[in-house]
Amino acid sequence: MKNKNILIFVIPALILTVSCNGISNPDTGNSRKAKKDSISIATTNQEHLFGDKRPFPQCHASTMIGTGNGNYLFAWFAGKHEKNDDVAIWMADGRPGNWSAPRMVAKINNDPHWNPVLFNAGDKIWLFFKVGKEIDDWITWVEMSDDKGKTWGKAQPLVADGKGGRGPVRNQPIILSDGSWLAPASVEKNKVWNAFTDRSEDNGKSWTASDTLSIDRKIIVGEGIIQPALWESKPGHVHMLLRSSAGAICRSDSKDGGKTWSPVYKTSLPNNNSGIDVAQISGDTIAVIYNPVGKNWGDRFPITVSVSTDNGKNWQCHFEIEKGSGDAELSYPDMFYEDGNLVACYTWKRQRIAFWKGKISFH
Questions:
Q1: Inter-residue contact 223 to 245 (CB < 8 Å)
Q2: What is the pTM of this model?
Q3: What gap in Å lies between CA 101 and CA 113, rounded to an integer?
Q4: In what order do the strands lie in the sheet with 248-254?
Q5: Distances from the Cα of 217 to the Cαs of 151, 239, 275, in angstroms?
Q6: DSSP character at residue 136
């Protein structure tokens, strides 16, 4: 049964619009220089999937996919609080203004569940998630649905002996131009972090992990890098942006379809050591959603989209989705591009899951 009266706020279409006429940095507000064709982003939908009448105290780390005809499927973890034994994987679906009630879809044992990742493989929808008392030793499990998430098959480990996390850790896999699947992965062991990719050439039946990335820890100070977000700019050329402890979003590049990766380097985008995601609009045109805060474990607000038309060398447009203040948390976004729109979800104060849709135009 759909909940038609649970929307907490709705922003009417095309009220919030930003036009960007050139290259700017995310910490310079509305300063623009007219060097590039302009990009405009206009909010068309912004609302919460549910309100205070929810079957859990806290929720976090949402993921989403489109299921056709303007409908979307979401998953997140929820319970008393992150890492508590009651934390399970929950789900909702629907369209703006008409979302289903939250429902539990995965609780395989009494350990905490973490970081669901939805992935549309064409014939089936995959739901990856982590299970474990500690992140260091969590295990990736997967369920599949062939009816757009209405029902799910039995959960099973993604790989045998997968302690520490295999497959997608936070963001969605991508399907490469050669048909291979590439999952963005990372490990957190004794507060030392690193990232890698998991590759499948048989539609998810088996997975091969790359080496972890090469990091200069004098430059990438602190814990390191985790939770990559991937895109392929041209056949075989794959790139990742990474959450980091170094005050900036970091990056690595591959020329062989994600089998090997360049040493990690910082980008110009700030990062607060919180989750990010990338949406590829076309070719070298990409958008990233993140908190533009350049302090390790800094504030998790505002939540912002930045756009690049040169494969991430420069960022020509910055659009603030929600400002936040005080102890607000607007974090762990998921985003994709769909029919001229950027579509995203994110954690709202650990109390709700927010949905945002913005029309992006290039002039």
A1: yes
A2: 0.93
A3: 20
A4: 225-234, 237-244, 248-254, 265-270
A5: 45, 20, 20
A6: G
- Which tokens is 268 given? 């110009």
Cβ neighbourhood burial of 29 (10 Å; 0-12, 13-18, 19+): exposed
CATH architecture of 7-362: 6 Propeller (2.120)
Give the pLDDT score at 11.
Answer: 42
> Which amino acid, residue 231?
W
- Distance separating alpha carbons of residues 147 and 127, to the nearest angstrom: 13
Q: Are 170 and 61 in contact (CB under 8 A)?
A: yes
pLDDT tens-digit readout, 325-343: 998 999 999 999 999 999 9
Q: Is 292 helix (H, G, I), strand (E, B) or coil?
A: coil
User: Would you say residue 22 has pLDDT above 90?
Assistant: no
The mean pLDDT of 171-182, rounded to a whole number, is 98
**Token pair for residue 63?**
């993921």
Query: Token pair of 30, please?
Result: 């509305």
